[in-house]
Every structure is written in structure tokens, then in C-alpha cells.
């Protein structure tokens, strides 16, 4: 038993703890109001606008696994048939280890979102009348002197820029998938595992903020005003300056439709502060550059477009991005402490 526990990787323990904590909260505190399946479907649409989260990486693991499995079995049969070596229990153990070593990397990417999405769906419903968006609105006013979601659509009226912002914002799952593929190929036992750990830790850190500082985003709270609130005259004057082009309106509406839980009193996610789009894009920059420095010429411009797009489509306040920075730094630091590169002697024993 002890030997079996010792084989569980650090990021897998982290994923199991995350699941235990947030599933327990969802079940004990809220009575399992929303099923895992429904919550996952709803929140996956919110984070990806309908794009499968990490779907590209799942496909890569599937293809990569069967490609390597083919050569593994060919070499095994070659030894057994042509060299007339009998099958042993060790051969079965090697085969099971080979299969498990590929698919176990998906555990944090499958189980953690299940627990996270259910928890966010539950608190989004219960906190639908408690959003603190006026506070974030005021913070942006004091720190930056205005509201980016109001003036950016007036600055970038060209539909080409709208398309750039939209595509940069929506391809985040693809960029994460590509980063994981590169890390899995170049540094599977070090940088890949560190990114997995940092990914889980970033969500772990963000969850208490989502609950303590619920934020529905500028579009839902101010532009659509989904709860029919009254605002100060000064706020109305600012909102009247919002003048996006037609394509911007359509993209913003698409995002809003994808994240609205119609069966739960039109609840929308309260998970804007800190911005996970910002946090995960910064993780992409850091980890991809750690194995391939020229990637910065791609990832930095893409991240700038993504961050601008989040403001442009009224999905975030600027302070959401500021809070994402310490989340990322803590996630990378803790992930580095948690995951230690294996020594050559340890690798040889596997």
C-alpha cells in the first residue's frame, strides 16, 4: 500500500486534494444543486466559448500513445517470436506501466475542471445578487482614470481589429494545448509536470477570490444590466459613451449567451477577479519560453491581443489582470517547489 502511494505524483495528489475540497463544499454546503455534467458543460462554454478545453492535447496524447504502442508491441513480439523468449509477468507489468504513464497525465486536466466548474456554477447562482462590480468599476476609475471596456471599442472601430481581439481571446485553449504538447515532448518529467502543477495551483488560489469578490464582468453587470439595477448618473453618462461596431456587439452577445445559465435564474459566472484568461496566458508565455525562447515572439503579442480583447469585449476590468500577476507568480513558484526533476538513477529504475 505504501509503495502504491509513493508512485502517485505530486501534481496528482494536488488534483485529488482540490477535488476533495471543492466537491465537498459543493455537496455539503450547497447540497449538490447542480450536477457535475451540467456544470462542466456550462462552465466549459464560459471559459472557451464552446471550444473543447484542452481538446487538442487530449487528441495528441491519444495519437501519440497509439503510435508508441505500435512500436512497443512490435519490439515485444519481435523478442518473443524471433528470439523465442517466453512471456513473463514482467512483460505485462511493462505494458500496464506504458499505458498508464501516458494517460495518467490527463488526470489533473480532467478531474480538476470537473470540481472547479461545479463549484463556480454553484456560487455563481447563490451570489447572483451579490456581485461587487461597482467596486471594480471604481478601482479602474481611480487607478486608470477610466473604463477600458467603454473607450476601447471607440478607439478600435475597424472590424479587422475586432476579429484579431476575438480570435486571440478565444484560442486560449489551443495555445495551452500546444504549450503542453511541446512541454510533453521536450521535458515530460520536469517542465510539463511543473505547468500541470501551476495550472492546478492557479485555480486553487483563485477560488477563494471568486467567492469573496464575486464579479459578473462589465458586460453582464453594466451593459446588459441583467438584474435591472439602478446606477449613479455619472455611471449612466459613461455607459452612454459605449459605441461598439456591429461585429463587436455580435461577439459580445455570443459570449454572453454561452455563459448564461438560463435554468438557474439566468445566473452568470462570478469568476472574473482574478482573470484566469490572463493567468493562463502568462503561464503559456513562461513555460513555452522555458523550453523554446523564440516562442516569445509569438506568445507575447498574442497575450497582449488577448488581454486587450478581454477589455474590448467587456469581459474584464483592468484590475482583474493586475490580480492575475501574483496568482501566476505564486503558481509558478509553488509548482517549482512541488515538482523536482528526477535524477538519472530514479529514471533508470522506472
Describe how the helices and strands are arranged.
Blueprint: H1 2-6, H2 10-29, H3 36-48, H4 55-82, H5 89-103, H6 107-126, H7 133-144, H8 148-155, H9 159-170, H10 172-186, H11 191-212, H12 218-223, H13 233-239, H14 246-259, H15 276-291, H16 296-312, H17 318-338, H18 344-349
Could you provide a short overview of the structure?
By secondary structure, the protein is mostly helical. It has helices at 2-6, 10-29, 36-48, 55-82, 89-103, 107-126, 133-144, 148-155, 159-170, 172-186, 191-212, 218-223, 233-239, 246-259, 276-291, 296-312, 318-338, 344-349. It has one domain (2-349).
Explain what this protein looks like in three dimensions.
With 350 residues, the protein is mostly helical. It has one domain (2-349). 73% of the residues lie in helices and 0% in strands. It is built from 18 helices and no strands. The chain has helices spanning 2-6, 10-29, 36-48, 55-82, 89-103, 107-126, 133-144, 148-155, 159-170, 172-186, 191-212, 218-223, 233-239, 246-259, 276-291, 296-312, 318-338, 344-349. The model is unreliable at 344-350 (pLDDT under 50).
Summary keywords:
single chain, 350 residues, mainly alpha, 18 helices, 0% strand, disordered C terminus
Amino acid at each position: 500500500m505504501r509503495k502504491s502511494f509513493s508512485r502517485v505524483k505530486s501534481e496528482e495528489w494536488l488534483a485529488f486534494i482540490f477535488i476533495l475540497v471543492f466537491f465537498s463544499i459543493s455537496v455539503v454546503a450547497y447540497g449538490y444543486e447542480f450536477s457535475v455534467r451540467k456544470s462542466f458543460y456550462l462552465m466549459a462554454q464560459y471559459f472557451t466559448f464552446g471550444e473543447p478545453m484542452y481538446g487538442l492535447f487530449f487528441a495528441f496524447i491519444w495519437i501519440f500513445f497509439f503510435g508508441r504502442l505500435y512500436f512497443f508491441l512490435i519490439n515485444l513480439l519481435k523478442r518473443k517470436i524471433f528470439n523465442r523468449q517466453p512471456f513473463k509477468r514482467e512483460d505485462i507489468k511493462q505494458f500496464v506501466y506504458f499505458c498508464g504513464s501516458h494517460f495518467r497525465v490527463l488526470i489533473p486536466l480532467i478531474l480538476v475542471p470537473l470540481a472547479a466548474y461545479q463549484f463556480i456554477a454553484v456560487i455563481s447562482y447563490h451570489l447572483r445578487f451579490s456581485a461587487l462590480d461597482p467596486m471594480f468599476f471604481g478601482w479602474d476609475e481611480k487607478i486608470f482614470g477610466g473604463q477600458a471596456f467603454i473607450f476601447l471599442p471607440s478607439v478600435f472601430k475597424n472590424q479587422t481589429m475586432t476579429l484579431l481581439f476575438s480570435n486571440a481571446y478565444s484560442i486560449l485553449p489551443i495555445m495551452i494545448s500546444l504549450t503542453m504538447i511541446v512541454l510533453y515532448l521536450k521535458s515530460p518529467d520536469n517542465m510539463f509536470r511543473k505547468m500541470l502543477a501551476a495550472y492546478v495551483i492557479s485555480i486553487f488560489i483563485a477560488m477563494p477570490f471568486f467567492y469573496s469578490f464575486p464579479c459578473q464582468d462589465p458586460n453582464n453587470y453594466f451593459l446588459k444590466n441583467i438584474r435591472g439595477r439602478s446606477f449613479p448618473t455619472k455611471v449612466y453618462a459613461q455607459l452612454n459613451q459605449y459605441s461598439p461596431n456591429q461585429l463587436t456587439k455580435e461577439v459580445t452577445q455570443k459570449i454572453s449567451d454561452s455563459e448564461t445559465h438560463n435554468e438557474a435564474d439566468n445566473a452568470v459566472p462570478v469568476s472574473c477577479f482574478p482573470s484566469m484568461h490572463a493567468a493562463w496566458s502568462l503561464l503559456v508565455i513562461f513555460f513555452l519560453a522555458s523550453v523554446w525562447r523564440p516562442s516569445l515572439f509569438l506568445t507575447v503579442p498574442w497575450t497582449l491581443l488577448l488581454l486587450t480583447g478581454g477589455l474590448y469585449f467587456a469581459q474584464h476590468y483592468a484590475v482583474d489582470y493586475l490580480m492575475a500577476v501574483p496568482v501566476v507568480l505564486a503558481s509558478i513558484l509553488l509548482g517549482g517547489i512541488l515538482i523536482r526533476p528526477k535524477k538519472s538513477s530514479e529514471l533508470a529504475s522506472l
